[in-house]
Amino acid sequence: MGALVGRRVLVTRPAGQGDRLAEAIQSAGGHVLRIPVFEIAPVPPNGAAQEALASLSSYDWCAFTSENAVRHFLDWVDAAGVRWPLRLRTAAVGPATARALKARGREADLVPDPHTGRALGERLASKVPPGRLLAPGGDQAREDLHEILQRAGWEVTRLVCYENRALALTHSQVYALEQGLDAALFASPSAVRALWGQIPESARNVLRAAACLPIGPTTAAALREAGLEPAAVPEAHTTEGVLAALENVLAHRPR
Which domains does the chain have, with CATH numbers? Predict the structure, then answer.
């Protein structure tokens, strides 16, 4: 019997995201409880963003730390009628972000390993001469990338092109959570905070008893801040890495 057969797994990604992971769990015989705890909302370009779009050719690199950053920033570019400069190279934090770029007709020139903003900043700082970098992202993006590059002499322009907006859980969602879990998956620190901050103690106890898996170290830190010890941190911060870690953890947990 596979490790996921009959297991109940919480997926907290926003609607329309995390489908590959949910489908993989279901294909392996698991039961997925989908509770989106926040939504992604686009932000219109402010004055600084409009200035950056108008001077896109003056930048050397554009660094994307999420699929949402790709989607919403390139929507800005398209709406502004701006052509992507040939000299402007792109960096993607991981394979999923690189795939999102490719779907919009762009190839990532750099993908770090491990797939974190810190690793991306360190890779650029150590391998590329300082230049001008554009960093579109969400309102809750970590500062690691920007701080590392600024210390290395880069000029970094950070733009907020989307927001994470917490969703209020319904009574039925809380009830479903209280029925028990084998595992809970979190793809961002904001997902941890959005869920933990609004569930009653009965649901918190369910999470305490479950195997909580973050996608990477920054999300693991958010779990620890909530008092939840990660069951494992995937070696590869990807859908495949999370799935492999989930199978390994559940293979050693009683049913």
Answer: 8-37+167-251 (3.40.50.10090), 41-163 (3.40.50.10090)
Strand duo 155-166 + 89-92: pairing: unpaired
What DSSP character marks residue 199?
S
Residue with tokens 């961002």: 188
Residue pLDDT, tens place only, 205-253: 999 999 999 988 889 999 999 999 999 998 887 788 889 999 999 999 9
CA distances from 209 to 113, 123, 217, 253 (A): 32, 38, 21, 11
For residue 215, count CB atoms less than 10 angstroms from its CB and return exposed for 0-12, middle for 13-18, buried for 19 or more: buried
Write b or e for each residue in 88-116: b if 16 or more Cβ atoms lie within 10 A of its Cβ, otherwise e.
bbbbbbbbbbbebbeeeebebebbbebbb
In the three-class reduction of DSSP (H, G, I as helix; E, B as strand; rest coil), residue 35 is classed as coil
Integer Cα distance of 11 and 158 in angstroms: 30
What's the one-letter identity of residue 120? L
- Report pTM: 0.84
Q: What is the C-alpha separation between 9 and 30, in angstroms, rounded?
A: 7
Q: Measured between alpha carbons, how far is residue 60 from residues 18, 49, 91, 148, 212 in Å? A: 32, 16, 11, 17, 39
